[in-house]
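Notes from the 1:1 (GR / supervisor)

We went over the backlog. Supervisor wanted to see one worked example end to end before approving the batch request, so GR pasted a single chain during the call. The sequence is below; no edits were made to it. Supervisor asked that the structure be written out right there so they could see what the output format looks like.
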Amino acid sequence: MISRPTDPGRPPGKFELPAQVSGGSVTLDIGNQFLVQVSADNRSWRTVLRESADVRDLSNRSARTLDLNELRGQARTFYLRVGDSRPENGWGSWLARVRLDLRRQELRKITSP
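Structure output shown during the call:
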């Protein structure tokens, strides 16, 4: 997903999470004319980040962090798609890296006296 994520026909990134995950974050180091969308089923998409300005020099590059639970809802699998927010000029997005940080639910062992 990191190299040329805006090429037409490129599949989205698929993230399958362990059952013990209780939360976390996804951080994208991204710039230029980006459009980031998320889906739980790889069919219906929701926009979570969009650059509306005509940026072509990476002056807007930064690490943008999204809450994992807001992205995935109750699903254990989610998809992340990076595209071009201004396809009419063909400039596109620039993605350096994606970082996934997970929090695990603590499992407590219950013992009887």
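Supervisor's comment: The helical segments are 68-72.
Batch request approved.
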